Amino acid sequence: MTQSAVIAGFAMLTLAFVFALARLLLGPHAPDRVLALDTLYVNTVALLILLGVHLDSSLYFEAALLIALVGFVSTVALSKFLLRGDLFE
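and the corresponding structure tokens:
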């Protein structure tokens, strides 16, 4: 039962990756692309957590935490750049 749930999770995350990547490449405006990039970070974190559960390894949880931190900081920086045109005041 658990194995089929993990496979279904991987399939759903793959589909989410495809949709977010399409929005990143084809997004009509810059905020759409920033949101798609943020979604890709969240999907990557979810994929690493699912992989950590599947392989029973805590290393993937630590990698997911690092990617989440970098993703948050980069989303804030890109949003600030889009709003003001500069990163530092």
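(Above: one complete record from the training split.) The CA atoms of residues 19 and 66 lie 24 Å apart.
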